[in-house]
Write a structure and sequence with these properties.
It contains 11 helices and 4 strands; from the N terminus they run αααααβαβααββααα. By secondary structure, the protein is mainly alpha-helical. A two-stranded antiparallel ribbon has the order 1-2. Strands 3-4 form a two-stranded antiparallel sheet.
Length: 259
């Protein structure tokens, strides 16, 4: 029942863009009937799933994604569901290992809070980025965003990708610079890429969309090539197709979560 409620909440509020009180009256009524033994838990699960189907609007999700890429807006960086989505992705890579990114740190105000990192940075002053990106269309695309501790986010700044992903040590074998390769499971996956170009951003974005439809049981047929291009802000000149959705990024084993 909790799984069904979580799915309803995420899909209806953060995907469909409905009001936060959607179906409240229905659920209050169901709760009362359950308390009076007029409805079973199985009945409630069915009803919650029915409400999810009734209110789900993936077309509106696509529309809102397009709107978020307009001038003076910030794409997925301003999506209300971003932190929760990336946390669930991180948790899916946990396997049987310890959790490297805690829910409690997502909203802390202290230095140890978890922030959202732009892998390709917002201020791409390093020649590495200038040589690989002709524009910033993919800056706030889903595949370019990564959960990262705030202190670490400040440290990596606008460095090139090789620097960002690589932990270095001093002569005493003490950590000198903490890279993605010594971070969360999501960070470690990104660190396995050899390069970070528009191709990698799109590839990871498609992989995350595949996770979205799998994890929250959304119809895969909704991820048409047109919809994917709109959601990720893929411009026609990049000539990328939907065919790579769900594949392992660049041959990377995304389930390799060893510390």
């Amino acid at each position: 029942l909790l799984d069904a409620c979580e799915r309803f909440r995420f899909l209806i509020r953060h995907i469909s863009g409905r009001r936060s009180n959607t179906s409240d009256s229905v659920f209050y009524g169901l709760a009362h009937k359950c308390f009076e033994n007029e409805k079973t838990i199985a009945d409630l699960i069915t009803e919650v799933k029915n409400q999810t189907v009734a209110w789900l609007d993936f077309d509106n999700f696509v529309k809102e994604c397009v709107d978020r890429y307009k001038p003076n807006r910030h794409g997925f960086y301003e999506w209300t569901g971003l932190r929760y989505f990336l946390f669930e992705y991180e948790r899916s890579k946990q396997m049987n290992n310890k959790m490297l990114c805690n829910w409690d740190t997502l909203f802390k105000q202290q230095q140890d809070k978890t922030s959202i990192e732009h892998i390709y940075p917002q201020t791409p002053t390093d020649p590495y980025w200038q040589q690989r990106f002709a524009d910033n269309n993919l800056l706030n695309s889903l595949g370019n965003l990564l959960l990262l501790k705030l202190a670490k986010n400040i440290q990596v700044q606008n460095y090139d990708f090789i620097t960002k992903k690589t932990t270095t040590f001093d002569a005493n074998n003490e950590v000198e610079f903490l890279g993605y390769d010594h971070g969360s499971y999501s960070e470690k996956i990104v660190s396995k890429y050899a390069e970070w170009t528009p191709k990698e951003i799109i590839e990871r974005g498609k992989h995350l969309l595949h996770f979205l439809v799998e994890h929250w049981n959304i119809d895969k047929n909704l991820l048409t090539e047109e919809n994917v291009n709109k959601i990720l802000n893929i411009q026609p000149t990049l000539n990328m197709t939907v065919a790579t959705i769900g594949v392992q990024p660049s041959g990377i084993d995304i389930d390799d979560d060893d510390d």
